[in-house]
Amino acid sequence: MSPSSLPDLQELERRYAIGTYARAPVQFVRGSGVRLWDSDGNEYLDFLAGISVLNVGHCHPRIVAAVRDQVGLLTHATNLFYTAPAMRLSQALSDSSLGGKVFLCNSGAEANEAAIKLARRARPGGKILVLQEAFHGRTYGALSATPQESKQAPFAPLVPGFEVLAKDPATLLAAVDEDTAAVLLEPIQGETGIHPLSDDLIRAAREACDRSGAALIFDEIQTGMGRTGTMWAYEQTPVVPDAMTSAKALGGGLPIGALITGPGLADVLQPGDHGSTFAGGPLVASAALEAVAICSDPGLLESVRALGERLSTGLAELPAVATVRGRGLMVGIDLREGVSATGLAQRALLEQRLVVNATGPATIRFEPPLIVSAPEIDEAVARLGALM
Asked: Which of 69, 179, 256, 328 could form a disulfide with 308 if both were Cys (CB 3.0 to 4.6 A apart)?
């Protein structure tokens, strides 16, 4: 297939692609580490990492080698048979986290769908409690757990049995009862602008679930795989969940998701309860095994914590920045009144070749690959500062 210019692709999109995305006018053709190159040869500093997908960076040599080795051997066999990469990945995920069992799937939304089914299988008919400003995905169960009017309203009626709670410990403690199947929460809410939940709220969730027998489920799709400076964000909270979901960075750039249980929920789902044609295929599972090994390296995690502090400190010194929050290399900023986050993110892309993401009218999200260096942190801050 011959290369296409950006106008060619825009015309193809206009004629043939369903218009669910508002794409920026850039065509990326190559990536390496923390850098991207467009079709005109311009180099960009990537501080979004595909929305926390490329924690290992673009085209990490170990991911590339794993995919090349596997693609010539076996790409698909279905889950009617055994393949070594899927079983070894399940072991690696369990050993790195909750110590239970793993269901592999293809995306974060699918992982959350599996978690919802797990909770309802354990407590049939039970309600699922979620928090204000949560985001858990766009498929129907996951969307029903995502209390954002703009995303839910066009697709009503949604799946019944979901209740939305204020982010308040007392409210949560009062809401969880024997009819609750699960409390589903993100330890750091990412899509709405990087908002860490308080330890008090997380403790209340654990206490309420222990008292009622409900499952506490953490959505670690964006926070996991080293993003916050530990392999999983729950390690920096005062609790351990009963189950958790992972995706995004799990595949090193390839699509995969996982539901990981603790021992207490390991055998709830039975043969035939759930499944997926492509889930845990040998190609993507081989890449994920390498991604897990890379992201769990103690030296890398220590670097994430140090560089996260450096990024937050640098951003806080910029004149248009009002507040900075986050953990590790998952950082959000709120801009001062009158500064448009969407406008600033677009100018950063087109004028400074810096890839970031506006998550709201005044909020910008930074999630660079975890392999970023201190000079690259400083370079990104300088590029953004040049626009203020």
From this structure: 328
| Backbone φ, ψ for residue 72 (5° rounding) | -90, -5
Domain count, the chain: 1
Q: Give the helix/strand (H/E) hosting 50.
A: helix 49-52
Quote the DSSP letter at residue 232: S
Instruction: Assess contact for 240 and 234: CB atoms under 8 A.
Output: yes
Long-range contacts of 19-24 (CB under 8 A, 24+ apart): 24/346, 24/349, 24/350
Active-site residue flag, 199: no
**Is 365 a domain residue?**
no
Mean pLDDT by 10 residues, the chain (388 residues): 82 96 96 97 98 98 98 97 98 98 98 98 98 97 97 97 98 98 98 96 98 98 98 98 98 98 98 97 98 98 98 98 98 97 98 97 98 98 97
Q: Please tell me which residue in 135, 162, 218, 366 is annotated as part of the active site.
A: 135
Q: Where are the beta strands (DSSP E) in the chain?
A: 28-32, 35-38, 43-46, 102-105, 127-131, 162-165, 180-185, 188-189, 195-196, 215-219, 243-246, 257-261, 321-327, 330-335, 354-355, 357-360, 363-366
From the candidates 103, 248, 334, 366, which is the catalytic residue?
248
Residue 330, both tokens: 């998952």
Paired tokens of 363: 């909020």
The pLDDT of residue 4 is: 86
Within-domain flag for 63 = no
Whether residue 71 is contained in a domain is answered as no
Q: What gap in Å lies between CA 169 and CA 184, rounded to an integer? A: 14
Taking Cα atoms as reference points, which of 286, 249, 271 lies closest to residue 111?
249
- Distance, CA of 312 to CA of 326 (rounded, Å): 8
Give yes or no: 219 in active site. yes
The number of residues in the chain equals: 388
155 is catalytic: no
Strands 43-46 and 363-366: what pairing?
unpaired
Domain CATH number, residue 278:
3.40.640.10
In a domain, 61, yes or no: no
Determine which one of 103, 218, 219, 242 is catalytic: 219
And the tokens for 183?
Answer: 């409390």
Could you count the other beta carbons within 10 Å of the beta carbon of residue 28?
Answer: 15
**Residue bearing tokens 């004028």:** 351
